[in-house]
Design a protein that fits this description.
Elements (H helix, E strand, L loop, with lengths): L1 H21 L4 H10 L9 E7 L2 E3 L2 E4 L4 E6 L8 E4 L13 E5 L4 E7 L2 E10 L1
Parallel strand pairs: 1-4, 3-8
Antiparallel strand pairs: 1-2, 4-6, 5-7, 7-8
Length: about 130
């Protein structure tokens, strides 16, 4: 009986030591993993603006320098996408169903209009 008790005690001690070595608080491995992890947002490759009759939707967009903005004339009549401040671009006459693109190359604010419809105005905020 004494021999059996000693064997059980040794087995339990060995198991306890093994569990202690494997368990721990986990802070070391978590800290190491967290220090190596890098979280990044996916880059914004393009922004789309719908040119509708009498409005740009959305009216204000935010992009990063280097991103491309694409306007699609979803309206029933021709429009333009013409920069008035902060950049130099002009789509010319943009017929229904046609698109125009511009790559924002530097941070700042760009204002644009439709030359055919005075109330159509838009803004691009480039970060």
């Amino acid at each position: 009986m004494l021999k059996r008790t000693l064997i059980i005690s040794l087995v339990l001690a060995a198991l306890g030591t093994g569990l202690a070595a494997c368990g721990g608080s986990g802070t070391d491995s978590q800290t190491t993993t967290a220090a190596k992890a890098t979280i990044t947002a996916p880059p914004i490759a393009a922004a789309n603006v719908s040119v509708q009759d009498n409005t740009f939707k959305p009216g204000t967009i935010r992009v990063k320098a280097g991103d491309t903005i694409e306007w699609t004339n979803d309206g029933a009549v021709a429009h333009t996408v013409t920069a008035t401040d902060g950049a130099n671009f002009d789509s010319g006459t943009l017929e229904p169903g046609k698109t125009f693109s511009f790559a924002a190359d530097k941070p700042g604010t760009i204002h644009y209009v439709c030359n055919f419809h005075a109330g159509m105005q838009g803004t691009i905020e480039v970060r």
